[in-house]
Amino acid sequence: MDTTRVLLGCSIVAIASMILLANSINGKEEERKTLNTSPVIKEQGVEARSEEWARYYPRQYETWKKTSESVKIDDMLKNKPQLAVLWAGYGFASDYNAPRSHFYALQDNINTLRTGAPVSPTTGPSPTACWSCKSPDVPRLIGRVGEKEYFTGKWARFGSEVVNSVGCADCHDSRTGNLVLSRPWLKKGLESAGVRFDRIPHQQMRSLVCAQCHSEYYFQKREETDANGGKQVVNTVTFPWANGFKGESIEEYYDLKGFSDWIHAISKAPMLKAQHPDYELYTTGIHSRRDVACADCHMPYIQQGSVKFSSHHVGNPLDDIENTCLNCHQETEEEFKAIVRLKLERKEELMEMAMNGLAKAHLEAGRAWEAGATEAEMQDILQDIRHGQWRWDYSIASHGSFFHAPEETLRLLAGAGDLAQQARIKLAAVLAGHGVIGYQAPDFSTKEKAQALAGVDLQKEIAEKQRFKATLVRQWEKEAVEKGRLNPDARAGMNDSSSYSNN
Ligand code: HEC
Ligand code: HEC
Ligand code: HEC
Ligand code: HEC
To answer: Ligand 1: residues whose CB is within 6 Å?
Structure first.
């Protein structure tokens, strides 16, 4: 047999075994039946306290609880100081950490400087929508007060209601135990993208439960008049999927709506902030194409005696490569880790170029305004910056895209770098036109320098946040325990620190 034939033979064997494995993963009818005949956790409404589910599902609960081991805080502004320049004028310039696990989702949302330091339930800055992907108390609350009411007002309004971190009822129905889409906005988003709900295969549900939160969304804002004639702001979580999942399609969606998240403090460009489009990018990759679901890699099956169940310790699949990748692939652990590392390095290289180009473009645009540039001269440039930064952010904000969809991630990053350079060439001409030749953007090589350029007063924000945590947050917790919404021991073992308090 010649070499080609051997290779072909090998790959046929590999594909056949993948199909067999995929079938065995898809065909877990037994487990599903057990779940279907499972005890009713709550007859009506949503049981948001995961500890209440633990009684019946100790294995799933114990593995879910293990996500509390993800204690490390990774300060991204320290790792990549360019970020503070890119986000000048927006909360992310003050505080941005790499994601932690589901156990910490709620706490990290309270801790981040981005959600501010409200002094009462009606003070800002964040809208209630900021709770939406942090807790099973959100579907509970929507079930009780309705979607419109949930989206009305400021974040602090529901501080004592939204108290359990991402848990069972985010993905499971409290009565039947089945996988459920607990977030109405995912359904609306999918409908706008043409998906029919009577025909969602189970394997897709194993990704869609994740897509409820690991997706791109924005807050659609409208003013409403209440019964007493008062004005109220309603911010509804909305998925911008009507033109498709591609970075450029969503960019076009926002452009046509004239939507911006904020005006950049240095360049004055009308900016977009990507959330975490894990799901959208994943759909462009080979694993999605071959029907491998999020849960296949992030929630592998574990055998414990005669019982087989899904690990709910959602984290890095490479930590349990034996039960994830090597279920379907035949390389050694080392080879496989090296493949993933190489993908990460390639992304980092293009990402760094795009970020540096964009940060310089913002600073050069700032200099151009100072030199007297006109709106007409700047319009085109600001559009390039908006689009370039959007494509950079959309490609990497999901953290896993370098692996889930490597080609699409690199394609978007290349586009982002190119737009940044186009803006900079145009800026050189505008600057020269106003007598500024050879301008060099100032140094942004450390978090401190970059935050100073962005106008962040970190110490003030930290002091306000600490006061908020010592007062309002304590009251929220106390009230939630008294009203039976939060179990007193639910936060045991929690590492409640933040990067800013370690500095
Ligand atoms: C982020 C979503 C998510 C969360 C949170 C979650 N689950 Fe699951 N769960 C899943 C998925 C996906 C499956 C696989 C279901 C399938 O393929 O039928 C699953 C399966 C199960 C099963 C079926 C048996 C098995 O292990 O495959 C049980 C029981 C279960 N989960 C209980 C729980 C409990 C209890 C909690 C809270 C401690 C919880 N789940 C939290 C997504 C989630
Ligand atoms: C209710 C919203 C929600 C759902 C549903 C959800 N996630 Fe998450 N997930 C989050 C949030 C929020 C974070 C970031 C938490 C933080 O940084 O504190 C996160 C973090 C993660 C991380 C990073 C973990 C780490 O230790 O770094 C992974 C991986 C992940 N999710 C995968 C999944 C998968 C796979 C599913 C579906 C089975 C899923 N998530 C469903 C909200 C959700
Ligand atoms: C349920 C089965 C399954 C699991 C689990 C799985 N894969 Fe795959 N993988 C596939 C299939 C199917 C393909 C596509 C093969 C083809 O069509 O050529 C693929 C392709 C790949 C490729 C080549 C394409 C590319 O993007 O470069 C790599 C690398 C890869 N997988 C890595 C991994 C890693 C790492 C893990 C674990 C985190 C993993 N896979 C988990 C089934 C799986
Ligand atoms: C084929 C396996 C595979 C599939 C399918 C998959 N992932 Fe991943 N995911 C990985 C790997 C591998 C990483 C990179 C882990 C690392 O090295 O940091 C990752 C990273 C992530 C991260 C970043 C974690 C962090 O802390 O930086 C998130 C979030 C995530 N995945 C969510 C999802 C979601 C949501 C889906 C489905 C839409 C999904 N993944 C589908 C294998 C997979």
So the answer is: 31-32, 35, 50, 53, 57, 60-61, 64, 166-168, 170-172, 179, 206, 209, 295, 299, 309-310, 312
